[in-house]
Q: What sequence folds into this?
């Protein structure tokens, strides 16, 4: 009887586990940091790690990084892989959670201050993350619990949202809103928000909680609209860079001649100058002619 009860208990436990997995629960964190499997149409092709070259350095918090590369199915079918067909993922794993959010935000602010990089903060799908584009590369980065995730690659103008979502399911973002402005997060990743007393003569809108159906804010664009505009601009820039420049025509030398009657040649100019000098010189009076002697004389 006891053996029968144990067997029934095991069957019930397996059934509960199976139901939980079938309901689409949160996928587990990979043992080696990155997902070593295909993610939709993106095929897993390379793993590297552990690496000690850490991009987000947290003082006193030991870390190591792992990378994975994915290639589009279409690129493999045509037998030619270009930069736009590759997405790389960097996952940095830390011993503790302290300082990760703060140092990630500090890195993003430093890149935003450098020439050639455009850094934005917003939501990619349901994930709040940092968008870093410039110097021929595009990345999406966010801090998670004991991890920093970075998705993108060189030669790209945007990062596939599906790749961000696949990793965000395993590493939920802890990036606070408004991280590129205001006070830096503390070691625990918390940002002290300033409190304002309500002023009826000068009310302020909470952009995190306002209802867009009731309140119309001019010139306010959603994150997806910003990404679309950025993608279109990057594509235009890439197209302009590929098109050869048209040969420049030699500009004709403009002749500024305020006087329409000015001389056109040196010879004429000299002749006119001599004529002017002659006009300025005083003329000698002509001597009177002597009268002819009369025949009578």
A:
């Amino acid at each position: 009887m006891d053996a029968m009860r144990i067997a029934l208990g095991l069957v019930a436990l397996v059934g509960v586990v199976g139901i939980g997995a079938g309901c689409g629960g949160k996928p587990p964190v990979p043992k080696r940091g990155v997902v070593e499997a295909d993610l939709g149409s993106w095929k897993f092709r390379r793993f590297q790690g552990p690496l000690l070259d850490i991009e987000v350095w947290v003082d006193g918090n030991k870390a190591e990084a792992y990378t994975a590369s994915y290639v589009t199915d279409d690129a493999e079918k045509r037998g030619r892989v270009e930069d736009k067909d590759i997405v790389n993922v960097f996952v940095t794993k830390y011993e503790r959670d302290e300082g990760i959010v703060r140092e990630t935000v500090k890195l993003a602010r430093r890149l935003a201050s450098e020439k050639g990089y455009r850094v934005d903060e917003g939501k990619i799908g349901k994930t709040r993350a940092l968008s870093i584009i410039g110097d021929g590369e595009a990345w999406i980065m966010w801090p998670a619990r004991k991890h920093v995730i970075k998705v993108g690659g060189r030669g790209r103008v945007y990062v596939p949202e599906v790749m961000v979502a696949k990793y965000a399911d395993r590493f939920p973002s802890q990036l606070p809103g408004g991280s590129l402005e205001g006070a830096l997060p503390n070691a625990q990743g918390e940002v002290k928000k300033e409190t304002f007393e309500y002023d009826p003569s000068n009310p302020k809108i909470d952009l995190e909680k306002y209802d867009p159906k009731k309140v119309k804010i001019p010139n306010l664009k959603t994150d997806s609209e910003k990404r679309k505009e950025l993608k279109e601009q990057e594509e235009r820039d890439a197209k302009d860079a590929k098109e050869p420049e048209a040969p420049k025509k030699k500009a004709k030398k403009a002749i500024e001649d305020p006087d329409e009657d000015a001389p056109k040649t040196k010879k004429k100019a000299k002749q006119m100058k001599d004529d002017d000098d002659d006009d300025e010189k005083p003329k000698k009076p002509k001597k009177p002619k002597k009268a002819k002697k009369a025949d009578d004389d």
